[in-house]
């Protein structure tokens, strides 16, 4: 099959592109720059130059594909409202172009914040009042399920880890190096779901191939790793002491990461494993930390 993918040269997207190509599919990828175009071509995909704001380009590529995998997102926390608006417009353009086709539209999401203090499952609703504006985006996307599009939300764990990760755990490791201590907040009992990048990519491919099996899939290899254990593993690997800090000091210590690292962001993938026959096989988060995945800063793609 021929898949159109946004974000196909990014951290998760490049693994998804490799997974699709490695299992016999064709991939056309949106490339926002010449660098992204070269990365996609090197992987074996066909690059199409454009931004997420180029709605005609998105629609045209979607119409020519057997399925669409929307992983791209503008991660600008200084103007998150604009990022959300761009995402909603892109999803609407993709959905409109695919209406009546019966083809799959996979949309990247996350389970962080869906069930504070509990464990999010595939059946946990995306309530905007609890989970914020990206949950409202999911409501907008769901309308295309009634218009002949197989919409599947792949909810990723807060950390999609592996060698070269430049996400949340990389930011926490950077703070540990900068501050000379590896910190966790309060008792560090709050949990973070985690999944290895290769496992996440395999799940995306399985969901794209069998969209009739579910409308929500959880990419969670580990239901929840206590943040104290994450901090201890980073401290041991980086050679700095591990300390607890008060919640009131989290923003000062971690900066923008404080609000995330203090959250309980656990998520189950039991139904996903049953429905798709998906079994995570990659290293755990603590194993990746111990293997040196976060020894040095990694620039974002």
UniProtKB/TrEMBL annotation:
Q: Out of the domains of life, which is the source?
A: Bacteria
SUPFAM superfamilies listed in its UniProt record: NAD(P)-binding Rossmann-fold domains
Q: Which Pfam families match?
A: Epimerase (PF01370)
The record's section on InterPro entries has: Epimerase_deHydtase, NAD(P)-bd_dom_sf, NAD(P)-dependent_oxidoreduct
Record domain NAD-dependent epimerase/dehydratase: where = 4-212
Q: Per its record, how is this protein called by name? A: Oxidoreductase
Q: Which organism is it from?
A: Pseudolysinimonas kribbensis
